[in-house]
Design a protein that fits this description.
The complex is a heterodimer.
Chain A (H helix, E strand, L loop, with lengths): L1 H25 L4 E7 L4 E5 L5 H21 L5 E8 L2 E8 L2 E8 L4 H8 L1
Antiparallel strand pairs in A: 1-2, 1-5, 3-4, 4-5
Chain B lengths: L4 H16 L3 E8 L4 E3 L6 H18 L5 E8 L2 E8 L2 E8 L4 H29 L3 E8 L7 E4 L1 H23 L10 E6 L4 E8 L10 E5 H7 L6 E6 L2
Parallel strand pairs in B: 6-10, 7-9
Antiparallel strand pairs in B: 1-2, 1-5, 3-4, 4-5, 6-11, 7-10, 8-9, 8-11
Classes of the chains: A alpha+beta, B alpha+beta.
Chain lengths: ~120, ~240
């Protein structure tokens, strides 16, 4: 019981740390926003709130596609995904059992952000 | 497998790339419509269909932020790189230790160069050896074989107009000076969009000559979903 409580507290701390890191990243030049999801809740911070639905659907589809593709091609569990469109870049990763989608402009160095967050 | 000469050449190129870069495990090329142009021989049809569905879905949802240019997955045991090259998408599966520069060379230099060369060759060939619209007659029976039959005069026209361009292309690619005397293969394209490459022979029956007809074995008609009396586009294959 006590172990479970400690585990929850640890996770909470890690989650809070992650949110702080994301807040910091969000203020950087070229960052459009992020979606952080776990099984029960989601934390969304986007510069243009009108696009929440589009971005949430894309994020979920990209996670699903990466799981499907890695399963079909037997490459094991996906760790890091980067999707690029004509205008925007999306970094997807799992952090402490949370699915993180970070939207940014194309010239932002996503590898630097990945290293910081993993 | 797609029998289009363009697809065959791309497939051969991908096979050679796989030999040259052992970290490349498999590769697929999709058209913008989601059709699979080249595929890995070891991958079964179900996997191909599932991949196609995932790709289509992802491409559709990405429209919210513009056209899909690339999708990279770093997984526990390998890397998957999906890149847009002109109107096509290349999906490359590599080992987890694959060199980033090698992947970049394949997706950004080698494949685009091959595509550019193919386009140049195809447009040169199309300009000088125009396709003909011919009416289908079916070849049935035990001796139907797998070759189509076309009027000698049409074959002669193609040989005459095509020799110059074919010779030029071959000279550029191989440095040889040989000129083909006969057309050995033709590309048949239906108006429903299906196409195939077939061996070609001269039409045998005297009464069929000069009628702009093509005799096609029944099994090829079935695969192309055409029947007697339909029109098809036919052109010599390079």
């Amino acid at each position: 019981m006590a172990d479970t409580k400690n585990e929850t507290e640890d996770t909470k701390t890690e989650f809070e740390e992650l949110q702080e890191q994301l807040k910091e990243i969000k203020d950087q030049e070229g960052i459009i926003g992020y979606i952080l999801r776990d099984q029960k809740s989601a934390s969304i911070d986007l510069k243009d709130p009108r696009r929440i639905v589009d971005y949430a659907v894309l994020s979920s589809t990209a996670f699903d596609a990466s799981h499907e593709m890695t399963e079909f091609l037997q490459t094991g569990e996906p760790k890091k995904m980067v999707l690029e469109s004509e205008e925007t870049k999306l970094l997807l990763m799992n952090v402490n059992n949370h699915r993180l989608s970070l939207f940014m402009e194309k010239d932002v160095n996503h590898n630097k952000l990945y290293k910081k967050l993993k | 497998m797609n029998r289009d000469p363009y697809a065959i050449a791309l497939n051969n190129a991908m096979t050679e790339i796989k030999k040259a870069y052992p970290d490349v495990q498999s590769s697929f090329i999709f058209t913008k419509e989601g059709t699979i142009l080249t595929e890995d021989q070891e991958t079964d049809q179900k996997t191909m269909d599932n991949l196609k569905e995932s790709f289509e879905n992802l491409k559709e949802k990405t429209k919210a932020i513009g056209k899909l240019e690339s999708f990279y997955i770093m997984a526990k045991n390998g890397k998957i790189t999906l890149s847009k090259i002109k109107d096509l998408h290349l999906l490359l599966v590599t080992s987890k230790n694959a060199n980033k520069n090698q992947i970049h060379s394949i997706t950004n230099i080698i494949i685009p160069t091959i595509l550019k060369t193919m386009e140049t060759l195809t447009s040169t060939q199309n300009q000088l050896t125009p396709s003909k619209k011919l009416m289908v007659d079916t070849l049935t029976g035990f001796f139907a074989g797998d070759s189509v039959q076309i009027d000698t005069e049409i074959l002669k026209t193609w040989t005459k107009t095509g020799n110059e361009s074919l010779a030029h292309i071959r000279n550029v690619l191989t440095g040889e000076q040989t000129i083909p005397e006969n057309i050995e293969q033709v590309k048949i394209e239906t108006f429903g969009g299906k196409s195939t490459l077939c061996k070609v022979k001269e039409i045998k029956e005297q009464k069929m000559k000069g009628k702009n007809m093509i005799k096609i074995p029944e099994k090829i008609c079935k695969s192309l979903e055409i029947k007697k009396g339909d029109l098809v586009k036919v052109e010599p294959a390079l």
